[in-house]
Design goal:
single chain; alpha+beta; Nucleoside Triphosphate Pyrophosphohydrolase; 8-stranded mixed beta sheet; 3-stranded antiparallel beta sheet; globular
Length: 211
């Protein structure tokens, strides 16, 4: 191992041109897709790696929008069933923000507006939707990029316990209006356990005073 203790090391010096993809094979095609990549890439030593394969879950990108009422310091949480949690001994009903996948030719703002209407019957104005960040949910195995936004909303117009969602998509979504402190307490207790909601709440904890 090379000793770099006193050496200034550059970060993120490589880019996509330092990867060679020799083939992409689709191993499964259903509602989602699984591709197998045959590739090699430059190593930190400067030489090229041996060729290897990686399976990538191609589920498409998603948009998440945190709805926050600065006047009442309140948030909207959606409760719904998630089959991905069934393998562990926890409830598969999760507390989340409004979220959804892209339809053809939609922008992230289009998705945010559409999903707020479908999942919570809330009419968002495009100009009120602000980007928090983009991030990859699990880049070791999926290509999904999350577009995380926040928007103001009027929490006084929302009834906790209301249920929305599209029947043909098997959606059954209950709304909960909670204070920022209540949401952060749920996070501390481990009652909120999906990445986008965790990241959004942590961002809000840092930034709420300037919103």
């Amino acid at each position: 191992m090379q000793d770099n203790k006193n050496k200034q090391v550059s970060m993120l010096q490589y880019d996509k041109t330092d990867v060679t993809i020799s083939a992409i094979e689709t191993k499964y095609q259903g509602f989602f897709k699984m591709n197998e990549y045959h590739l090699n890439h430059k190593l930190f030593s400067g030489v090229q790696s041996a060729s290897f394969t990686r399976e990538v879950f191609e589920r498409g990108d998603a948009v998440v929008v945190m709805l926050y009422d600065p006047k009442k310091d309140a948030l909207l949480l959606l409760e719904q069933f998630r089959p991905g949690v069934l393998r562990v001994n926890e409830t598969p009903w999760m507390l989340e923000f409004v979220a959804g996948m892209f339809n053809e030719n939609e922008s992230p703002i289009d998705v945010a507006v559409r999903e707020a209407k479908e999942e919570a019957s809330i009419e968002l104005k495009a100009e009120s939707i602000k980007l928090i960040m983009k991030y990859f949910s699990s880049p070791g195995g999926t290509s999904e990029c999350i577009n995380l936004y926040w928007s103001t909303f009027d929490s006084s117009k929302i009834s906790s316990g209301s249920v929305y969602g599209l029947a043909h998509e098997n959606e059954d979504i209950m709304l909960h209006v909670v204070s920022r402190n209540e949401a952060l307490a749920l996070l501390t207790k481990g009652k909120i356990s999906n990445a986008a909601t965790i990241i959004g709440l942590q961002w809000l904890a840092i930034n709420y005073q300037r919103l």
